[in-house]
Amino acid sequence: MKIRTARALSLVSYLGLIAWAMAWIILLGDVAREHVSLWLLLFAGPLLLPLRGVLAGRDKALIWGALVSLLYLVHGGTVAWSEPTQRWLGMIEAGLSLIYLVSASYFIRWRAMAHVPR
Prior knowledge:
single chain; mainly alpha; 118 residues; elongated; 0% strand
């Protein structure tokens, strides 16, 4: 049960982080219309690299997804700290990436412990 919960939480938070990054650039941020494509590529692109493996539940992809999400944790924390008008945007980004980092770590650990012969 706890393995399925950690898996579901990691998927929801990772997909939520992708959706949040795209929504921030397209709808919520102050990005000029002629630069939206570039910002989407730079900001949401790294999250798409390990996506196939994250969806499949592969350990290496989950770890790479966690490493990539650390960048978004730092970005969200920096925005929340330095820009009062966009503080809530940064806090949501940092929260989603932190939830993914913790839940993916527990999912990998608990699944490995469940498969170890005792």
